[in-house]
Amino acid sequence: xxxxxxxxxxxxxxxxAIGFFIARRYMMDYxxxxxPINEQMLRMMMxxxxxxxxxxxxxxxxxxxxxxxxx
Length: 71
Hints:
By secondary structure, this protein is mainly alpha-helical. The chain has 2 domains: 1-34; 37-70. The protein has helices spanning 2-33, 39-48, 55-70. It is rod-shaped and about 70 Å long. The protein starts with a helix and ends with a helix. It is found in: Cell membrane; Membrane.
């Protein structure tokens, strides 16, 4: 009976550890392929939409996006 419990606990610990590293690797790859938006990307998007981006407007939009992410 003791060996069954010990085996189950060890299998659970191994599964959690393997799952953690797989999830970590997946997120690192995802962030490499899809980086978060920075000021340069925001400026380029505004220029493509026909707007003339001022630094004040970019700062406002970055603050707004960061505020939304915190929710």
